[in-house]
Amino acid sequence: MHSTTAHIEKLKAILYEIDALYTAASILTWDQETYMPAGGEEARARQLGTLERLAHDRFTGSEIGALIDSLAASENGLPPGSMDAALVTYVDREYRRLRQVPADRMAALVEHGAATYPVWARARERNDFQVVAPHLEKTLDLSRELAGYFSGFDHIADPLIDFEDPGMRVAEIRRIFADLRRELVPLVAEIAQRPQPDDRFLHRGYPIAEQEAFGLDIARMIGFDPQRNRQDLTLHPFMTRFSAGDVRITTRFLEHNFSEGFFSTLHETGHALYEMGIDQGLDGLPIAQGTSAGFHESQSRLWENLVGRGRDFWEFAYPLARERFPDPLGQVPVEEFYRAINIVRPSLIRTDADEVTYNLHVMIRFDLELQLLEGSLAVRDLPEAWRARYLADLGVAPEGDADGVLQDAHWFADWIGGAFQGYTLGNIISAQIYEGVLDEIPDLPGQIRTGEFQALREWLRSRIHRYGRIYSPAELLERVTGGGLDSEPLMRYLRRKYGELYGLG
Ligand code: ZN
Questions:
Q1: Separation of 13 CA from ligand 1 center, angstroms?
Q2: β pairing state of 229-233 and 246-251
Q3: What is the pTM of this model?
Q4: Residue ranges with CB less than 5 Å from ion ligand 1
Q5: Average pLDDT of span 361-390
Q6: What integer pLDDT is reported at residue 77 of this predicted model?
């Protein structure tokens, strides 16, 4: 027993060191994507590569290996189901996984991602994919190399997806996506036959300072805490955790688009609430993070959509919005506003897409990612493949690359593979969770109508957030919903909401 305690303490001491390295890297990345002047690019990529190499070396070194071996033995004395036992299980699995990748190759991948991000930003500004294409060629090579270190998978993307959504595989995702698509495509077509509301007022002038203030007002009401959070501007919004007491979000505002800035603030706040809700005792350990990309998205999308795009929510928030934006909104009744923010219309930008067409954007990216990794699509043909898929699936195609293949930062800051399926898994999970929440808090709509979010936040914290990575995504889903992934609650929700909005039979 004594040696178990000593070993677990020793393990944690090493994990805290590794956490310091990864946190330093996260701060450098956050800085790169918010404030860093262009002159810092080259050094920043090198610094991030170095931190990755040090952290990777430490995590896959023989010291952790020996501790894990002794702690993972059945007679280790760790109480089953305890946090320490969960930590050992998690570190054991990650140790075995990451040991397969040489530290200098992982560092090369991270360094290349950090070097690519600013080039992507310039390419996007110039609306020209060719500016970043050579970088993306190398990203694809490195991504395939990374996948190649792992064996026992059916598809080249499987090990890469497993990093983001542990346990998920291409075959299963394809099946889930095909089921969902079969339901979504006719719904989109049905809605397209119906008259559209007028949403032009959402694209009039919304002063950016006021947008920022309004977004933060609402974020505070749902749980954003200025003592533990801050918000900064970036090109592509994200959330990042440095510790339990310092979780940051970023956003972007467009003067002529109310929805983009506001809903991305709500979205990132949902991510932040997840990280802030993780048991503080786990802080500094690798299990102190959301359990998967899909679960993380379930939290951001729940606040953004199931709450934030609902009629109940705007009954409370609309008077506040009107105070901030008397000119565009003063004459617009709340019902008209509600219909406008929920307009279903095939569009080019994923982050600004409505709830019905959103998953079609994700499926395009997922399929293109697989084709790149499989070698059936060349990087140089990507913009054209993108346009063709948008035309086929959504009936619209971008004129330039900025609204097309360059719109998302993912492939240009990280590796290719596993970056997108989590968005749709998140939408599916969010609807499954919300059905359970409504069963247990029947008065929730009434609470939301008065701007009261504590019961919902607390429900999510106690059932999901607090556990961090103690449970795998599948275990957590089973605990929360009593079952596995099921897209039926999402479709029920979409059919009910948009059936009413568009008067569908
Ligand atoms: Zn998100």
A1: 31
A2: parallel
A3: 0.97
A4: 300
A5: 98
A6: 76
Instruction: Report how far ligand 1's centroid is from the alpha carbon of 505 (Å).
Output: 33
DSSP single-letter state for residue 75 = G
Catalytic hit among 52, 268, 275, 355? 268
Mean pLDDT of the chain: 96
CA of residue 272 to ligand 1 center, whole Å: 10
SS (H, E, C) 351-372: HHCCCCCHHHHHHHHHHHHHHH
φ and ψ at residue 181, rounded to 5 degrees: -60, -40
Query: In sequence order, which ranges of 34-82 are alpha helices (DSSP H)?
Result: 41-59, 62-72
3 state DSSP class of 240:
strand
Predicted confidence (pLDDT) at residue 319 exceeds the cutoff of 80: yes
Query: What is the enclosing helix (H) or strand (E) of 91?
Result: helix 83-98
Using one digit for the tens of pLDDT, what is the confidence trace for 271-298?
A: 999 999 999 999 999 999 999 999 999 9
Active site residue 304: no
The highest-level CATH class for domain 191-353+428-502 is: mainly alpha
328 near 204, Cβ under 8 Å? yes
Q: Give the C-alpha separation, 48 to 56, whole Å.
A: 12
Instruction: Check the CA dihedral 137-139-144-145 and report its sign.
Output: positive
pLDDT at 2: 65
Helix (H) or strand (E) run with residue 230 in it: strand 229-233
